[in-house]
From TrEMBL, chain A:
InterPro entries: Bact_solute-bd_prot1, SBP
Any single Gene Ontology cellular-component annotation: periplasmic space
Pfam families associated with the record: SBP_bac_1
Residues annotated as signal peptide: 1-26
Keywords: Periplasm, Plasmid, Signal
Identification of the protein by name: Sugar ABC transporter substrate-binding protein
Keyword Signal: yes
């Protein structure tokens, strides 16, 4: 008994000694230029081409800083609940999380994430603030302080089939009425063979994300200036009526259950003449390995019906990397997020992945970008310039508001309620949520 | 005297084995239930900075007046009743059919169990593709006989039944399995005797076979009912509760409240309420619908 005890003890001591030696060597090798070598970061990111590019380049980061990264990649819908549970428990489980900028305000109010300006001045080796598209920095800034580095971003625009428009003599729509007229012409002249317009109609964020274009373009908004729900307005009702009508009359069968993928595939397969969706769809339209409409698609800004909109009718969505307040290694975390969003890494990502959502001006101006995404670059930049960062509400209760609004959109699209009634219901639920 | 002592000791020994386990399980169950009730009486939301307050029965009052929750409850009940009855009836029919002797019986029996062992995610995705309004197989088959495409998952009057079909497809084999194993234990001479007496096949099934299957079917129905209360995976994958809330069950609503709205306390209230309602319903079912032997 004693003998085994002492034997295992001496093994322990030997191992500890060996470990200490290794660590000392490592310290000597690292020196001063890698102050956080040996740190191990836990990072939660969203499944996306940008994330794939970051993952592929991780060895470069470890080589440059000596920091190891444990990367966890989950679908967008699962990422928020995951980080919320860890944040609210203050667990420090994740050092870095990737989140849409619509959550930033809520995270800051709840003290879940830290401001980055101080870290940026202390460790600036990867960081160049001037290289970020300015419109992507704004939604990550609260009270003048930067809380997230933009990793990828996108806007929305109208995609239409140039060949069909020419064949049927249709001009590019500038209002929602013109969209409906164009959809009608396509349906009639193709004898219903080609769908006039396809959009996402699935209940929840999918449908709301697209309908929001109609809402803002009609002069409506989600919230009033004093933070109450603004969905019981005539503008909102008209927006929902027009959205549902064009889809029910000239849209695809099954639109009420269509999300991003279904909608994208339908358009890529040449079965629809128009779609209104995120700019990232352009990358899929122009990719010959997945698309039958390469070179046939025109890109235009999202239509506007009113002369005085309260905000732009194209979206501005930015996903940023944030550092958790509960993280014990915020400096190392900063090095990671500034490296992942650096000019060099973003330019590199264009070669490894279909990443049209770069946030770096230098990457957007690179030859690789022009070669791949030149077909829609101009329209994308125009959409970004007029992109509305409040497109989807950014208050802490945003999810619940989107959820309630999604039910209204779905009901009208399915024909089970009138736009005015459905929106009145959503309005009451939203106001209840906002005061809760 | 001695024998009594032995008996006493051995019983004590047995107790030493199971008591800690029972005690631990009870402790865990009560601790969790206590925590659940504590959550229901507070206003914990991950999206607010106001801090946690005791709110009494406010969450329960909110649920009682929440039309969305009440509609979801009604939909859950409808789904349980339809799914359970279809699965049990179809299951017996298939089991009776398979009880005949025919070539390839073993193969058919193996094939029929496939849906049950399939992961719910795969089953849900398969049915979602089959029901796809644009390019799904079902609409394609219908088009070959001249039927216009049906918007299976996008029409609020149809979507719940589309999910129901998938659930029936996946879980009827379970009833078949239970019924078949019982059918094999039924003495063949009883059936033969009835046949000798000139009873028709329908009468044999009704008066001889079914009464003997009663216990099995009661258990199968109970298990299927409990499972359909918990049904979540097929709904989540096929419709996510849409369109127009037409497939949102109480379970799915609780999930949305918890993981979209982050309203933890209210979500727990919904879950607890569903648990209570289910328990009462199952107790009633047990009391009135079950034969004595099963209880």
């Amino acid at each position: 008994m004693t003998r085994t005890g002492s034997a295992s003890r001496s093994i322990c001591i030997a191992m500890a000694a060996a470990f200490a030696t290794v660590t000392t060597w490592a310290d000597i090798a690292v020196g001063q230029d890698k102050p956080f070598a040996g740190a191990r970061l836990s990072v939660l990111m969203v499944g996306h081409p940008t994330t794939d590019a970051v993952r592929k380049a991780l060895p470069d980061f470890t080589a440059a800083t000596g920091i190891d990264v444990d990367l966890e990649v989950v679908p967008e819908a699962d990422s928020v609940p995951k980080m919320m549970l860890e944040f609210s428990a203050g667990s420090g489980r994740y050092d870095v999380v990737e989140a849409s900028s619509i959550h930033v305000k809520g995270f800051v109010d709840a003290d879940y994430i830290v401001p980055l300006d101080d870290l940026a001045t202390r460790y600036g080796e990867f960081y160049d603030k001037a290289d970020f598209v300015p419109g992507y920095l704004t939604p990550n800034t609260v009270d003048g302080k930067l809380y997230g580095l933009p990793l990828f971003g996108e806007s929305s625009f109208l995609m239409y089939r140039k060949d069909l428009f020419e064949q049927y003599g249709i001009a590019v729509p500038k209002t929602f009425d013109e969209i409906e007229a164009a959809a009608k012409t396509v349906k009639e002249k193709s004898n219903g063979r080609i769908v006039g317009i396809t959009m996402r109609g699935q209940q929840g964020i999918q449908g709301v994300y697209i309908w929001a274009s109609y809402l803002w373009g009609m002069g409506g908004s989600f919230l009033t200036d004093d933070g109450k729900s603004a969905l019981d307005t005539p503008e909102a009702a008209t927006a929902l009526d027009k959205f549902a009508h064009v889809l029910r009359e000239y849209g695809p069968v099954g639109v009420a259950n269509m999300g991003w993928e279904e909608n994208r595939l339908l358009f890529q397969q040449g079965k629809a003449a128009m779609t209104l969706d995120a700019t990232v769809n352009g990358a899929f339209n122009e990719d010959p390995s997945v698309s039958t409409v390469v070179g046939k698609v025109g890109y235009a800004p999202v239509p506007v019906q009113t002369d005085s909109p309260k905000g732009g009718s194209s979206s501005l969505a930015v996903f940023g990397l944030n550092i958790a307040s509960a993280s014990q290694q915020q400096e190392a975390a900063w090095l990671f997020i500034s490296w992942a969003t650096s000019k060099k890494q973003q330019i590199n990502s264009l070669d490894t992945d279909p990443n049209s959502g770069v946030t770096s001006v230098a990457a957007m101006n690179s030859p690789a970008f022009d070669k791949r995404y030149g077909a829609f670059k101009k329209a994308m930049l125009a959409s970004l310039a007029g992109g509305n960062p409040q497109y989807i509400p950014t208050v802490p209760r945003a999810n619940e508001i989107v959820n309630n609004t999604g039910i209204a959109v779905s009901k009208v699209l399915a024909g089970t309620a009138s736009a005015a009634d459905a929106l009145k219901e959503a309005n009451e639920l939203n106001n209840a949520a906002l005061t809760r | 005297m001695k024998r009594h002592g032995m008996h006493h000791i051995s019983r004590n020994h047995a107790r030493m084995f199971y008591q800690p386990v029972v005690g631990f399980l009870a402790l865990a169950a009560f601790a969790l239930l206590g925590y659940a009730i504590w959550l229901c009486l507070h206003n914990i939301s991950l999206m607010t900075t106001k801090g946690t307050q005791f709110v009494g029965f406010q969450n329960f009052v909110r649920l009682a007046t929440d039309w969305r929750g009440l509609q979801a409850l009604w939909r859950t009940v409808l789904f349980i009743v339809l799914a359970t009855s279809f699965e049990v009836i179809l299951g017996i029919a298939i089991a009776l059919f398979l009880d005949q002797e025919f070539r390839g019986k073993k193969f058919v029996r193996a094939v029929i169990l496939v849906p049950m062992i399939m992961t719910p995610v795969i089953a849900g995705l398969t049915w979602r593709f089959l029901f796809n309004a644009q390019s799904g197989m079902i609409n394609y088959w219908l088009s070959t006989i001249g039927v216009a495409p049906v918007d299976w998952l996008g029409n609020p009057n149809v979507a719940l039944y589309a999910v129901l079909v998938a659930d029936i497809w996946q879980w009827t084999p379970f009833v078949v399995l239970l019924a078949m194993s019982t059918l094999e234990t039924i003495p063949k001479d009883l059936v033969e005797a009835a046949r000798m007496d000139g009873a028709s096949e329908v009468r044999i099934i009704w008066h001889v076979i079914l009464p003997m299957l009663r216990r099995t079917l009661a258990v199968a129905a109970l298990i299927r009912a409990i499972d359909s209360v918990k049904a979540f995976d097929l709904f989540y994958i096929m419709t996510k509760g849409g369109p127009a809330l037409s497939t949102e069950t109480q379970n799915l609503y609780g999930y949305t409240v918890a993981f979209t709205n982050f309203d933890i306390s209210y979500a727990m209230t919904i879950a607890l309420f569903l648990t209570i309602v289910t328990n009462i319903a199952l107790m009633l079912l047990n009391r009135f619908a079950m034969p004595k032997g099963v209880r």
